[in-house]
C-alpha cells in the first residue's frame, strides 16, 4: 500500500503530478491510499512512499478531464482523491468512460461536480458584503461566508470581474480572499468577527425583502429548497422569515374581509379629462383608422398584432388594393413591406409608377394565420371575412376618391367589385367602381408561389399589366380638376 | 403629512411591484467591470440572491418608479381609483438604491416598472433617465429589465431597449375583450403592436451587430422581451391562454410568457372575482408552455377544444399520455429523442443521459434508476430488454397509481 499525503485540499496540479507518477508505474487504485493535509493517518499497514521518478507507462486522458478534475477536487469528501485516481486508471483502458452516464464512477464524479457547482452558485448568490469604510477614493467591503466545499479559489474570479472597482474581502472558515483592484490575494481561514456586525443599507434591504413578499401565495418548500436553512445564519434578511410566514394568513384574511373599496375621488377627474380628449373631432381617415383598429367583426382581428392601415397621400389619383397583410406587414404595421411588397416595388418601378404617389391598402385589414409548430403560417381569408371587411376598404375609396384603382388578386376584386370571375378574364379589361376606373392584375405573392420556371414570364406579364397604369392616368384629368366630394368633418 | 423616507418609499414601491412574476436575470450578453470599468457583470447564468416565503426568487431590485397612475386597470393595486398609499422615487434615488444593493451583492440588477404619470411618454422618459444614468455615468454592467409602457412613443421604447438587457410589455389578460373590460386605457392590439415593433427593431439591431466587422455595435436588449398575463381574472380557458401565448412566442419572438395566478390584492376592485385562482393552475400552465416550446407538443394535444382546461391533479404530459396509450410503450433502447421526450417522467436531461448511456451498451431496467428520477413513474410507458409493462399500461387505475397523493397546496 502506497500512502500519499497531499499538501493542499484542492490543488488539482499537485494531485495530478502525484497521480501521474503513480499511474505511470502501473500502481493499481487499490494499492494507493490518499490523505489530505491534517487527515488522521492510519498507519496500521504501514505506508510505502511513492516512487520518486516517473514510470514507463504513457498516460492519456480525454480533453474534458482536467477541467472536471479542477472542480471535483474542491469537494470536501475525503474519498474524492481516490475516486479521481480510479477514474484516471480506468480511463487508460476505457477512454469513453466519462461519456457513460450509467457508469457508477462517472455518476459519482458527476455528483461531486454537481454539488461543488451548486455550492459555488450559492456562494455567488448568498455572500453579503458589508461596508467597511473608504480607503482613498475606493470603497471597501467585507463578507463572511461558510461554504460546504473548498471553493474560494473557484469563485473568487467571479467576484473580481463583478466588483472590479471596489476593494473587497471574503472570509470563510478555511480560506479567505481579498481584491485590491490589482490582484486576488488568498489567505488562511478566518472567523465571523473579521467582518462588522452591521451595515447601514441592510435595513433598506430588509424593508425590500418584507415588501416584495406576497402573503397570498405562501410556498415555504419552494423557498427552502433553493435557500436551505443552513445558509440563513449569514443572510440578514432570513431573520424576518418566521414572522412573515406566521403573519401571512392574517394579512390575506384581512384583505378579503376588507372587501372592495370605493374608487378614490381622483378617478373622476381623470375620467372627465379622457372623455374630453376622445370627443375632439378627427379628420375622416384618422377617424376611420381608429374605428378600424377596434374592429372585431370577424375572429382574425384578435389574433393579429394590429390593423394594417392604408398609406399614401389622401388625394392620390391611384389607389392600389392588395389582398391582406402578411407576417412582416403584421409586425411592422405597414402594407406591402414583406417579400411580396418588395416584388411589387420592383415591378412598379419598372412600370414607371411611383409608389409614393399612390394610396396603398388591402382588402382585408388583419393578418390571418394558423400555428404551424412554432411558426405563423399565412392563411387566406374566407369569403365571409372578405365581405365583413369590405366596408372599410370601400370607405377608404370614398375618402381618397382615386381616379384609378388597381386591384391585385382575386380577393381584392371580390371585395370591391363583388365578382368571382377568373383572373384571366379580370385582367383583360377595365372596370369601374364609383367614379373610378378599375384595373385588375394578379397579386405579387402569386408570382412568388409559382414554380421557378414559370416565374419569369408571369412577372413580365405582371409588369406589362402595370405598365398600362401610367397610360391610363395620362388619359384622365390632372389632379387639380379631380372632383372632390365634400366630406362631413 | 411627514415627508416619506427612502425606506417608506421602498416599502410602497416594492409592494406595488410584487405582482410582476419575472425575476429572470439570465440570457444576456457577457460583460464585466474588469473589462469595462465601473461595476457589475452578467455572465449568462442568472443568480437568485434570495428567496421570499412565497417561493419566488429575488434576483433583481424590482420596484416601481412611482405607483401614481392615471390608468384604471381593475386588477392592479396601483389603478387610479385605488386608495393605496402613493409614492414616487426620483431617478437619482433609484440609481443610488440599485448601486447600494448591488455592491452588497443583494441583487443582479434592476427591474424597473412604473405607473403612468402625466402621460406615457413622460413616464418612459423618466425611466430612461434612470437606466441611462446607471449605464453611462456609473458604467453599471449588471442586469436591467425595463417594463415599457405600451402607448409610449415607439422611439422612447427603442431608447429604453438601448440600455436594458430585457424589455417587457404586459399583455395583461389572455383575451382582447378582457383587456377592454379590465384595463380600459389599454388595448390588446396596442400591446401587440408594441411587441411587434420591438421585435422588428431587435431583429434589425441583431442583424446589424452580426454584420458589423468589429463588435462595436452592441445588440439592443440582448435578453429579448417577455410578457406576463393574469390567469383567472377572466373566464378564459387554459386552451385560450396557451393559444394566446403560442401566438405571442411565434409572432414577437418572446423569450418568456409569465403566468400570474390572480390573487386578491389589498383594496380590491368591485369588478373582480373575489376568489383566488389556485396556484397549481399557474404551475400547470407553465408545464404546458414548456411542453409546447421544448418537447414538440401541439396545443391540440394538451388543451384542445374537447378539453380546454388542464388537469389540475396530474401534469399535462401524463394527462396526454393517458389518452394516447396506443403510442406506448416506448423502447428505451431504440426510440428517437422526440419519442423519448414524450414519455411522462422523462425530462430533457434524463433523455440526454439515456441517449448517451445507450451508446455504451443496451440499457436494462436496473440501469434506469441511475439515469432517471423515478423509474416507477416511467415504468408503465417503456420497454427495455428485460422489462415490459404488460397490462399495466392498459390498466383502468393507471391514473390513480401515477397521480401524486392529494396534497394541500394552499391554505385558502
Mean pLDDT of chain A: 91
Strand order of the largest sheet of chain A: 3-4-5-6-7
Biggest sheet statistics of chain B: 6 strands, parallel
The name of the CATH topology of the largest domain in chain B is: TIM Barrel
CATH topology value of the largest domain in chain A: Uracil-DNA Glycosylase, subunit E
Description of the structure:
The complex is a heterodimer of chains A (489) and B (412). In chain A, 43% of the residues lie in helices and 14% in strands. In chain A, α10 packs antiparallel against α14, α13 (339-351) crosses α18 and α14 (383-400) crosses α15 (410-417). With 489 residues, chain A is α/β, with parallel strands linked by helices. Chain A has 18 helices and 14 strands. The longest helix of chain B has 24 residues, at 188-211. In chain B, α4 links the parallel β6 and β7. The model of chain B has no long low-confidence stretch (mean pLDDT 90). Helices cover 39% and strands 10% of the residues of chain B. Chain B is of the alpha/beta class and 412 residues long. Chains A and B meet through α4, β4, α5, α6 and α7 of A and α1, β3, β4, β5 and α3 of B.
Notable characteristics:
heterodimer, A: 489 residues, alpha/beta, 4 domains, five-stranded mixed beta sheet, 14 strands, elongated, disordered C terminus, B: 412 residues, TIM Barrel, 2 domains, six-stranded parallel beta sheet, 39% helix, 10% strand, globular
Write the layout of secondary structure elements.
The complex is a heterodimer of chains A (489) and B (412).
Chain A: E1 2-5, H1 12-24, E2 32-35, H2 65-72, H3 80-93, H4 104-126, E3 130-135, E4 138-144, H5 152-162, E5 167-171, E6 175-179, E7 184-188, H6 202-212, H7 220-226, H8 241-258, H9 266-279, H10 284-293, H11 300-303, E8 318-322, H12 327-332, H13 339-351, E9 358-362, E10 369-372, E11 375-378, H14 383-400, E12 404-408, H15 410-417, H16 423-426, E13 430-433, E14 436-441, H17 444-449, H18 452-474
Parallel strand pairs in A: 1-2, 4-5, 8-9, 8-12, 12-14
Antiparallel strand pairs in A: 3-4, 5-6, 6-7, 10-11, 13-14
Helix pairs in contact in A: 3-4, 4-5, 10-14, 13-18, 14-15
Chain B: H1 6-15, E1 31-32, H2 33-36, E2 41-42, E3 50-51, E4 57-58, E5 60-64, H3 91-103, E6 109-113, H4 120-137, E7 143-147, H5 154-163, E8 166-168, H6 176-182, H7 188-211, E9 225-231, H8 238-252, E10 256-261, H9 279-294, H10 299-303, H11 316-323, E11 330-331, H12 337-341, H13 348-358, H14 365-368, H15 375-378, E12 382-383, H16 398-402
Helix pairs in contact in B: 3-4, 4-5, 5-7, 8-9
GO molecular function (chain A): 4 iron, 4 sulfur cluster binding; deaminated base DNA N-glycosylase activity; metal ion binding
GO biological process, one term (chain A): DNA repair
Domain Uracil-DNA glycosylase-like (chain A): 309-467
